[in-house]
Amino acid sequence: MELMEAVRERRSIRAFLPKPVPKDVIRQILETACRAPSAMNSQPWEFIVVTGQKLEALRAELVEKLRSGAAMNPEHLVVGWPRESVYAERQIALAKRLFRAMDIPREDKVKRAGWLERGFRFFDAPVAIVIATDKILKESAPLLDIGAVMENICLAALSFGLGTCIEDQGILYPEVFRKHTGVPDGKRLVISIALGHPDMDFPANHVRSERVPAENLTTWVE
Ligand SMILES: Cc1cc2nc3c(=O)[nH]c(=O)nc-3n(C[C@H](O)[C@H](O)[C@H](O)COP(=O)(O)O)c2cc1C
Questions:
Q1: Do the bridges between strand 46-51 and strand 127-134 make them parallel or antiparallel, or are there none, so unpaired?
Q2: What is the CATH number of the domain that holds 189?
Q3: What is the pLDDT of residues 67-108, one digit of tens each?
Q4: Which residues surround ligand 1 with Cβ inside 6 Å?
């Protein structure tokens, strides 16, 4: 796939076919993604790839924890927006589009809870990738670098016909992730990515999120 097209076509995929992704393909995606730039070539990223029965057990416990109402305990910087801001407006606009596509009325608490759980199940993807960093680094310091490798993973996946959803929902209970994967306490879980073959019969996978035209965001100094 041509580069400009890949960047334009990438979108969040929130349902996957029950078809495994060969380990060699995952390896190639990560190997390519690691060409991302980083400050002074520090490469402050590590990947934990979870598949198969380990992933089934992980998602079952994450959903159980969510249903129990347990407090979430994220160790990464969780995004949040002032209520009256344009950022919150954009978030609401996206949620409306997704819920319309999925026929989830605002007042339908059962359907909304079901939707929320999908993220904690890694959207039933056959692969979950978590990007971790070293806790000896300042919390915000490696985030630009990790953002670059994260987007590279999504674009490289696309070139294999695979879909992705970047999600922090997958690591909102880091203690559960640690229990199933053995990641040591010295590593900070920064973001997760669901990966797999997109299920294009799932309406939300056709939602194209809006963008403010770059021209409205650009100051030309000439
Ligand atoms: C840091 C970050 C965290 C995200 N967390 C979630 C998440 O927990 N659940 C989810 O469904 N999507 C999540 N997303 C996906 C965004 O909602 C999505 O990228 C955005 O709406 C733009 O849509 P697009 O990816 O289809 O272009 C996250 C994206 C980023 C960059």
A1: antiparallel
A2: 3.40.109.10
A3: 999 999 999 888 788 999 999 999 999 999 999 999 999 999
A4: 11-12, 14, 94, 119, 165-169, 191, 209
